[in-house]
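Would you kindly consider the sequence and fold I have copied below?
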Amino acid sequence: LSRENKIPSPQKNIQYHQGYIHQAYMHSSNIPKGETVYMICGWNQIIDEVVVHLVQELKIDRKQIRFELFG
């Protein structure tokens, strides 16, 4: 949620991150991998970099990654 002024209130089993994805996925080793859906929006280069890191480095299943390209 990089463009939101106020992030939603915490809910059971839901974690939100406000800001750039790099800060969030670098700390995702503490997040249960089988239960997490990564929702990413950005430019091609950002999306490509994040998806590669999540899949190759953190061993996240590609089915858990959703993205929206813009720009």
Remarks:
- Strands lie at 38-42, 65-69.
- Helices lie at 21-25, 44-57.
- The radius of gyration is 12 Å.
